[in-house]
Amino acid sequence: MTSVVSPEWVLKVNQLGKIFGGLSENGLALTGPETGSSKDPVTGAIVAAWNVSFEVAAGEALGVVGESGSGKSTVMRCIAGDQSSSAGSVQIRTSPNEQIDVLSLTPSERRQLRIDKIAVVYQDPAEGLDLNVTAGGNIASPLTAAGWRNFSSIRSRASELLLRTEVPLNRMDDVVKSFSGGMKQRVQLAKALANRPPIVLLDEPTTGLDASVAAGVLDLIRGLLEEFGLAAVVVSHDFSVIEMLTNRCIVMNHGRVVETALTDQLLEDPHHPYSQKLVSAARA
Amino acid sequence: MTTLLNNLIDNNESEQFGILDEYSKREIRRAVLTAVAVPGYQVPFGSREMPVARGWGSGGLQITLAVIGPNDVIKVIDQGDDQGVNAVNLRRLIVQSTKVSETTTAAKSSIVQSRHRIPEDGLDQRHILVLQVPVPEPLRGVERDMRELARMHAEADYSKMWVSLYEDKVRNGVITQTTGYPCLVNDRYVIATTPIPRWDIPKLDHSPFLTLFGAGREKRIYAVPPFTKVEPLTFEDVPFEVEKTEGATCSQCGSNSSFLVEIPGALSRWVCSDTDWCERNLEGNL
């Protein structure tokens, strides 16, 4: 652990690791970008992520880039608490006096964090929303979890959020499964922001949407990140998403971080061979 | 050939007091004690095969037969009716296998076994109310995964219940759930108050009597101990209301202050659900 703590960070991930299965003695050396595999050839264990560290400040968005299987979603799930981690630490600081060591919390306490500290927007709306419940009801869920018990206050907060995420208010009382893909993501955003969390994790938020719809949702996300001063982690394999939303990013390959750079820099002048491959593929 | 229940019982060589063997009674009593110690918590128990079908009050019957003693006086009702077929059969079974005395008047009883109602009057700290419960899990309608249900109760995470009340209000303008209305017990566990109507829920709050809920098919027992807070879940600005039909009065005793049920017909009529209370009201004997 470093003793120098930068005062600005809201989310700090330090040497986070996730291994599925039992690793052999040299397992870490036998996996990673150099060996071209995240699978331990001796035991078959998978090093999904290892030694991942970064900090995110309020109003800043960090991108996590890599092809599928590179470990980027694992990192996000470990921070969100959807998955347990094998090593490292995750800390969040929501006020100068309040610092939480996320990985030392009980599963119950971690779920509490999801109510008003860490929000997650998933690629698949079915993961973040109850599709058989109305748009308003989906937003009522985190509100009631945070103790809201007044029906009209819940209604007005839900309509305020839907208005902000550009969901027509006349759809507020329709079940979400009747919505288009883009509108479902807008409802997910509204739900994520319900209790004004300081941190939001976005996992491929526009993958699966067609280009014009995706552009609209991206515009909205960028506006929300700025407006609410959120500390955001954006996981994506899509450079146009990373370019539009993030200031800095890390590139992951076979479970390891191979490059950390400012987003502009990475796109102009990638250093690591894998980053170069990714960028040229995106530019082609 | 018909064998009378009496003969069955008399021929039983190890003649049991109340059908259940002593080991079964002890197991059920333990579950009851746990339920009383943790108000609203659903305690699993080894529900026995009873001489009634599961779903016909086997849970309530097991509790009654486990807690009853020779000096108890039993009242059994189905809806509010002492003469309903199921009530008569259960009462006969209890009385003939234990030789306890029976009554139709709540105040004269010590144990009331009921399917749908809390009697209009007469229950105090001397009483045990045993309710026959079909579905003990209040969250069954919003979550099907058993592990997730256990987690939600353990963490008192009832936001899905609140969302379902929100949805009900949005879709129907009012909260439509009538029987089995979810209530928070002792500020901790949400219970299904099934099978009683909303009308009876205020009677559970800080009631002087002990209420035991038995679900035989689902193998669960839970309890509301005397003088325990029972709060129906409702939004601050959507007041909890009991069933009431404006202008309806009992066509027999004329009451408009009791829980009334409708007898459908060309000219539908309203009558008291609690038949014993209705008769005493008619006699001016309340």
Assign a percent range to the helix content of chain A. Answer: 25-40%
| Helical content class of chain B | 25-40%
Shape call of chain A: globular
Note the overall shape of chain B. Answer: globular
Low-confidence stretches of chain B: none
- H/E element string of chain B? HHEHEHEEEHHEEHEEEEEH
Secondary-structure class of chain A:
alpha/beta
How would you portray this structure in words?
The complex is a heterodimer of chains A (284) and B (286). Chain A contains 10 helices and 10 strands. Chain A is an alpha/beta fold and 284 residues long. Chain A is globular and about 60 Å long. The N and C termini of chain A lie far apart (41 Å). By secondary structure, chain B is α/β, with parallel strands linked by helices. In chain B, 29% of the residues lie in helices and 17% in strands. Chain B has helices at residues 5-11, 22-37, 58-67, 85-98, 146-154, 159-172, 201-204, 275-282; strands at 43-44, 73-77, 101-102, 111-114, 128-132, 182-185, 189-192, 210-215, 220-224, 230-232, 260-263, 269-272. The N and C termini of chain B lie far apart (45 Å).
Write the layout of secondary structure elements.
The complex is a heterodimer of chains A (284) and B (286).
Chain A: E1 9-20, E2 46-57, E3 61-65, H1 72-80, E4 87-95, E5 98-101, H2 107-116, E6 118-121, H3 125-128, H4 135-145, H5 151-164, H6 181-192, E7 199-203, H7 211-228, E8 231-236, H8 239-245, E9 248-253, E10 256-262, H9 263-268, H10 273-283
Parallel strand pairs in A: 3-8, 3-9, 6-7, 7-8
Antiparallel strand pairs in A: 1-2, 1-4, 4-5, 9-10
Helix pairs in contact in A: 4-5, 4-6, 5-6, 6-7
Chain B: H1 5-11, H2 22-37, E1 43-44, H3 58-67, E2 73-77, H4 85-98, E3 101-102, E4 111-114, E5 128-132, H5 146-154, H6 159-172, E6 182-185, E7 189-192, H7 201-204, E8 210-215, E9 220-224, E10 230-232, E11 260-263, E12 269-272, H8 275-282
Parallel strand pairs in B: 2-3, 2-4, 4-5, 5-8
Antiparallel strand pairs in B: 1-9, 6-7, 6-10, 8-9, 11-12
